[in-house]
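Justification of computing resources. Each target in the renewal requires a structure prediction run like the one illustrated here; the chain below, 390 residues long, is used simply to show the kind of job we budget for.
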Amino acid sequence: MPRRGFWFTVTVKDGERAFLTSNGCFKRLLGPGRYTTFDPRFRLAAEVVKVARAEITPERAFQFQRTHPKLAAEHFEIVQAGPTQVGLVTIDGDPKHLIPPNTTRVFWKTLTKVDVEMVDTTEMRIQKRHLDIMDLARTTTAMQATVEAHEAGLLIVDGKLTERLAPGRYAYWTVGRTVRVEKVDLRPQPLEVTAQEILTKDRVALRVTLTAFYKVTDPELAATATGDLANTLYRLVQFAIREAVATRTLDDILAARDTIDQEVRAYVEGRIKTLGAEVGEIGVKDVILPGDVRDLLNKVVEAERTAKANLIRRQEETAATRSLLNTAKLMENNPLLLRLKELEALEKLVEKVGRIDLHTGASAGGFDALLSKLYSISGELVPSKPEGES
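Resulting structure tokens:
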């Protein structure tokens, strides 16, 4: 502290206090102001400290509590948390500190209103009024978890499943215990079983890809029966599809995919119930053949299509021949029908030409007359003159 000769001077500001000592022994606590006193032997000293929203070391506070109990009770708020306690400290109405178990802290209450609430942590669940004023992210004495609407929460204390939690917000004291909340999704989940190579009964190597949907029905059983439900289901589907494929030939597999789906589902469904889940749908997405087998099957399909086309063409030719034979039989016994067919052929011929020259002899008059009477030709019909006529 500044001195002027034998004069000792100390200045204490608002928000501060000063410990005045003489030869190292505490004399008094100085409030705000300026103090000057004659000190020819240089015995006095002063330590200025801040007291607004401030702390003092527990050792020093306890010393004052023993030597000057009235001063300690007036100026210090001592917070001591036991083995199963935590202290909630509010300063001027503002939650500020969470005192963990087996911890002591001392706060100045000279200029600050300090409120302390000791909480017994043997009751594991944290009350909502405490939760609203705590910053759990900055403490290791508590944990919190939020269970969503599509989830089920499993409360596990010291490795033991103790309770199933409905959707909501939860917080627990972790003093003297290990607490965690496992969340289980209750919505249907897809599972892709990637391609795996399997030998069929006739020694053809296939790769089969499946899709399965499953849903947890018993969260407690699902959490205790297996460490990884999705991985367990994946293995079950693999075993089921191997058994279904290995007992069939390639032709049977390609022709009976629906049957294989049903067999795989029955195999998996009977085993997954013991794991707290159920299977929705299981289906074969892809059956991937080796390159040489795929080429061979393409050739077989092409040959089958070609044979089918040839069969259809032969059937059409046979039908046409049969129709022609029936027509010939009718014309054989019916001269008039034969004549009509001749005229029909002539009509089709005339439709394609604009001029027809008929070369007829003397004996052709009868045919010309027949044409004139039975058929009228559109276009220009010019009969040729007999040879020798001018």
